[in-house]
Structure formats: structure tokens, C-alpha cells
Amino acid sequence: MSNLTNNMKTSIEKLIFCSRWLQVPLYLGLIVALGVFAFYFFVELYRMITGAGIQSEYDVMLIMLGLVDLVMIANLVVMVIIGGYETFVSHLKLDDHPDQPEWLSHISAGVLKIKLSTAIISISSIHLLKTFIYANDPNKALATENWVAQVAIHLTFIISALAIAYTDKLMYQTAQPDKQP
Length: 181
Hints:
The chain has helices at residues 3-18, 24-50, 57-89, 109-134, 144-175. The protein is mainly alpha-helical. It has 5 helices and no strands.
């Protein structure tokens, strides 16, 4: 190869490697969206507080489930922001930080996928629980086919997470054959 071809190849490789920084605005956008989500959480919390004594226990329980759902989605977004940045853009220099999440020390694309899958299953579980709770409310109850669809989607999430975890385990064992159980 000529020197010009080598220089061009090196420049292209550097450009490809630097392209990972194009994800940073996406992560910053997720941080802004998380702020909006936090605002919505406090709007719902305010609605619950101001309705205390007026709302039924049933209504308060549904608002609480909504708040838990918002927190779990926020956790999912934080995992995507921190884990994605750490895995795909650049290392976070948090070794001595007392608040460093435990999972960050051993994050990889596979671990991130499993954590995200678990969070999605948890969020789906809350939505499914809401559907079951609404079953006795004629104004909010879903048709049977919608129940079946929600259960099927939830089971699909569970099966997908198990498949991802199993595939990750196989890839880990293949990469490190001397550490097989």
C-alpha cells in the first residue's frame, strides 16, 4: 500500500472512532427528558396529595403505581445514559466517587442489555398490574383481547430477556473457556 493510501485509511479509521461522540447530544437530550419526567412525577404526586381524603384508596393505589412506574422508567433512562456513555463513548472517571453505582464497575454491553431488559419487564409488570386492578372499573376496564395482548407482550419481554441473558452467558463462556462453571 502506498503512503497516501495508508494515511487515508488511518484518517478514516480515526473518523469512525470519533463518530462515537455523536451519541453525546443524544444522552444530553435524555437528561433533559429525564428532567421533564421528574416534573411530571411531582405533578402526579401533587395530585395525590391534594386529593388525599377525597380520593378512594383504590385511586390512591393507582396513582402510587403510576409514580412507581415513573421512577422505574427514570431508572431505565439513567441506566441508558450512564451505561451507554460508559460502554460506547468514553469511560467515566468516577473511581473515587462515593456515589458511583456498584454496577458501573462491571458494565458491558451484555450487562447493560440484561439490566435494561429487567427494567422493561418491571415496567411491563406495573402496566399489567394496573390492567388487572382496572378490571372491576367499567369505565377503565380493557376488552379481553387487550388483556391477552398485554400478557403476550409481557411474556415476550420475559422470553427475550432470558434469551439475551443466555446468549450473553454463552458468549462469555466462549470468550473465557477456562472460567466455565
